Amino acid sequence: MESFDLELPAQAPGIAPADAALFGVVSSGNLEVLVEAGPLPDRCRFHVETTAHGFTDVWQAVLADFAAGHRVGGLSFSIHDAGATPAVVSLRLAQALQSLEAS
Amino acid sequence: MNAPDNARSWNQEARRRAERLSRSARWRRGKEVAAADMVSFLEAVLAPGDRVCLEGNNQKQADFLAASLAACSPQHVHDLHLVQSVLALPEHMELFEKGIARRLDFSFSGPQSHRLARLVQARAIEIGAIHTYLELFGRYFIDLTPHVCLIAAQAADAAGNLYLGPNTEDTPVIVEATAFKSGLVIAQVNERCDTLPRVDVPADWVDCFVVAPSPNHIEPLFTRDPAHITEIQVLMAMMALKGIYAEYGVERLNHGIGFDTAAIELLLPTYGEQLGLKGRVARHWALNPHPTLIPAIEAGFVERVHSFGSEVGMEAYVAARPDVFFTGPDGSLRSNRAFCQTAGLYACDLFIGSTLQMDLVGNSSTATLGRITGFGGAPNMGSDARGRRHASPPWLKAGRERSGGDICIRGQKLVVQMVETWQEPHHPTFVERLDAWQLQQDMDMALPPIMIYGDDVSHVVTEEGIANLLLCRTPEERAQAIRGVAGYTPVGRARDRRLVENLRDRGVIRRPEDLGIDVRDATRDLLAARSIKDLVRASGGLYQPPKQFRNW
User: What pLDDT is attached to residue A83?
Assistant: First the structure.
């Protein structure tokens, strides 16, 4: 298990989730993401725990593209990854955000 | 002028054939040989150095004859030259380990690929060449004609007529080459019948048959459980349908096996219907009866399917849909690998399949270090047939795209590779150098085992988008187009962002959003069937999945 934190500038205003919301499942090749309100409206925080070793730079590239492409200021994402590919990571994050916007 | 040399005998082959038959006479009653006598019979008919075709493809196997041959004494039977499509059974490898066979010309070795590689490295086997199916079939008539073929059929009558059942596969081509060049045709059958449902091989092409103690093995290789299709595969299938099938109006096609293309089959009645594609795409197929095609057939997308082989469990469904499938008067499927390969090569406008590795010129390979898997039929399906002359709208459109502003004198088959950028965390699909090069070195091969050549590939589909290689004008553009859909792999991250954005502006690369696809819509809810049970339901209970696929 590897874990790391990342904080990136992000477009504000984001959505302010009233409660923490959980998306996805922890099963092989998949991941679970918990979205909560973060402390700063123009920053986005990520905490990642992953079973894949040596992929921090790939994760950072995926998360940087995600933060640049969506209005995620003021949000904090906690991710438990069970070997999801970057494609699955991007899709899950986009789906989580969509569900949040709809609720 | 010299007179013809009358001393020369012109019928030595026929004489050798008569000798084989007379040597084996004591084991034959009419054309029937008892199962218990099969080893002695084979020892009597075979001679050292014979070219033998032991029938087996990726589905049907002449398994009893393989076991009988492997039980022969290497003192009597040795140094055979096997010329056959697939090495699938442990007995196939035993033949080489025991010295019964020495030389091999083949096409595919999936299940025995590790053992084959070890034999090659131990120099216990001589490989003539690794072929595609059509090449090997072609050589049966030129320089690799079998002296003896050992084939598998469903049933025989007393005269020796054979019924092949739905899994015709390679049998006709093997029998044609052997029977008409004075070879011996020996068949194992599952049963002896007084009257056959239909005659697929006439008795005078068959020398003898044996009723095997148990039915020949058939592998359900083309069954994909929809439960395992991922959202990423749904997303790629949406892109393929909208960005390629609809764009080119692809009516005639062939799909590889795998979950990526199964997703397309299951999206036709849902997403394809929403796009208004019924009657406009995917009407005529060269395809085995994939269970995942059932919903598209039921929805009226699919008009006709010709098959290489059959698929276990699809018998009753096929028999109930004779307008769609090729069937005999008895109702069962008539498959034929040689004809279906020809159809896929010359009469289809699109091939779409998956691969394990792709490099920056678009060469792709399923080779893995330490294994020799061979080619099967994919290189023929996944190639532009330069002997094609008839035009069709998708073929012309692709040809015009390739020729740019130049005069267009030929069309182009659409050859689409559909891959996720990562196979799993430590295996990127896109690489600078294929493992095939290392394998070539390790196994001392003439060429690296490349499944589909990059210059035949028209499109690459990944979760990041579609790269249209026909529109690339330089090798550099081509490499950037591939990098531009290679996601977060090292190859993808080494892209020149400016060039890639330029390719996107020109429509060489199209992202999901460029195609009007919201990635968040890519859910499994779009699949017309989400489980094997759904497929059974869609077939009205006619599809009978093999038990390893029944999880209810």
Answer: 85
Split chain B (552 residues) into runs of 10 and give each run's mean pLDDT.
73 96 95 98 98 92 97 98 95 96 94 91 92 97 98 97 95 98 98 96 98 92 94 97 98 96 98 98 98 98 97 96 96 96 98 96 91 92 96 97 91 97 90 95 91 97 98 97 97 97 98 95 96 98 94 76
A83:B424 CB<8 A: yes
> Which chain A positions have a beta carbon within 8 Å of B230's beta carbon?
29, 88
For A2-102, the fitting CATH number among 3.40.1350, 3.30.230, 3.30.1050, 3.30.200 is: 3.30.230
Nearest residue on chain B to A28, alpha-carbon basis:
B424
> What is the least distance, in Å, from the CA of A73 to any CA of chain B?
20
Q: Please state the three-class secondary structure of B451-514 as a single string.
A: CECHHHCCEEEECCEEEEHHHCCCHHHHHHHHHCCCCCCHHHHCCCHHHHHHHHHCCCEECHHH
Q: Give the contacts of B253 (CB within 8 A, at least 6 positions apart).
A: B282, B284, B285, B286, B348, B349, B350, B351, B352
- Cβ-based contacts of A55 with chain B (< 8 Å): 425
Q: Are residues B235 and B185 in the same domain?
A: no
In a shared domain, residues B301 and B430: yes
**Chain A to chain B, count of Cβ pairs less than 8 Å apart?**
44
Q: Which of B427, B488, B493, B521 to mutate to test the interface with A (most CBs of A within 10 A)?
A: B488
B493/A94 Cβ within 8 A: no
Specify whether B173 is located in the same domain as B271.
no
Q: What is the ipTM of this complex?
A: 0.91
Q: What CATH number has the domain bearing residue B304?
A: 3.40.1080.10
Amino acid making up residue B348 = C
pTM beyond 0.80, yes or no: yes
- ∠B545-B108-B454 over CA atoms, to 5°? 105
